[in-house]
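Input/output pair, single chain:
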Amino acid sequence: MDEISSAGGLHTIRIRIDQLARLFNSLDPTPFHERDLDKDAERFIVDWAEETPDDGPIAIVVQLPAEETDTAVTRVVQDAIRYNFESRARQASRELRQLLREGRRALFIGAPILAFSLIASQLLTNISGEGAFSRVASESLVIFGWVANWRALEIFLYDWWPISRGGRLYRRLAAADVQVLAY
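Output:
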């Protein structure tokens, strides 16, 4: 497997393999155009694509021995790469929806707990005064309320970014111009 090059805003990922079968997952029995890419080949493509600017188009050039290249092979490779990365993009969309659903559930649970904790903290302070024990208990209730929202905040502030970024990258790779060349 080779490298990436850029020319005129088009970022080209070059993959050189000694036989077409190495591009695909050997344990996947489905037809070529619906087969998953080999994990190493997919990781190579994704790793290099991550190095490209987010807005530039991507081209993937698969270099095969001359005896393995023809129009049918080109179509099989194009379809397989497109199918693979469209599938990964759909998977990322599902993961994002599930994560955001989990975030909404966590917020649905955490927000009332926070409200209860803040009210209970204030009531405890009003009833018990400003003593040390009262202050510790009051602050503990406030901390408990915020901890109850920890997961929701983590999801909505941080966890969704990598999944969204991955989905965009997979969509770019699914739309990549795929060429098969002989070496």
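Residues 121 and 138 are 4 Å apart (CA to CA). The chain has a mean pLDDT of 90.
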